[in-house]
Design a protein that fits this description.
single chain, alpha/beta, two-stranded antiparallel ribbon, 12 strands, 37% helix
Amino acid sequence: MAHLFSEFKGVTKEEWLAQVKKDLKGQSWRNLDWMPQPSLRVSPFADTSDIESDLPAITRGRLQNSWEIGVPIFVGQDYQVANQYALEALQGGAESLLFFLENADVEDLKQLLTGIKLELITTHFHLQTRDRGQFLENLRTIIDQTKINTEKICCSIRGDVSQGNTELPGKGFPKIEQVISTTLDSDTETIEQLEDLINNARRFISSAPSEKTCSNLTLSVPIGKYYFLNIAKLRALQVLWQQVNLNSQNKVYTVLKVEAFFPRNVFIESADQNLIITAPLAMSAIIGGAQRLFIRPPDSASENVSFARGIAQNVQHIMKMECGLNRVIDPAAGSYYIESLTGQLVQAVARKVFKSPVDFKHLREQLTFDEQPMEWNTPEDIEVKSVFSMKDLQHGNHLHFAAGIPPYLRGPYS
């Protein structure tokens, strides 16, 4: 292969675009740009010159890309049925449960949580009521009855406008998560979503009474309909959060969990197509860096809810056990297209939130991975590391070419 590459010279961006214009026979190559949203314009002809950020893999201190397999459960008025669904989900390998309910007294909660080992999973409650403190007291009563140490309980109490609650850690749950989400509709443009999410988190931090209140922060992100945009959105969020850290005097906020979920409008009316799109959208969340993923079954699956629930849960098992997506952190790092889109999102949001663009050179020093990466071998005995860097591409001779020009190679891909 090295001999083959030596027969060809590298291709510059200008030479590539010249060939594209020739192939288009007079049409503008700009007509091929992708505009997933009015404020975003992405060229399909990306190479290393389009990467402004040049950041290392976004690890956030992680040694692997593991995530919690989450299952959302809509309780309604039948707590026994919801409990049965929760137990089935746990038997199927769920690691995190998210209950949607109006409210629940002690007896309702007791019925809902019967047989669930709260100390072995993370448990989350999305309430329609604003009285989260009373709900937490009810939960504490149930836990006291089961004699479980609250220090082992990892949970969150959230609502339709989830911006954290500075009073909750004082209720005796040291591991309670502060979940920050966007207050905007999931159809809102990505730049506005990220701006709102970062601003909500900054407001929560500024109002927090102590460092401990912010030590277990989670940002919850809706997954959209576009695969590449989802990956770039989650990566941009983590870069922007690092900038929040740099602007803060208190580095306790460095520990951050990113949660992704499927909103209702991500699906369409066709039940069959919804089953198909579940997998790539779930992949985009994990490749982007989500550490917890909730996939809701589509409304179109009302006639076969059990099957749709199984698909929603098992697709995550396949991504872990067969695809190995839990092994490599930020596998999209270095992809020209993804990096270009990530950089656009970061700078657009930074100009609105921080009133100035991000200094990627400074961020690069903060994001550099200093730990020894984990290693594993594929069935073909190919060694794969948990984190890759530019050093790993030093001998990548295939990186200097372009599609449409001999030897017709282009990369890296995500």
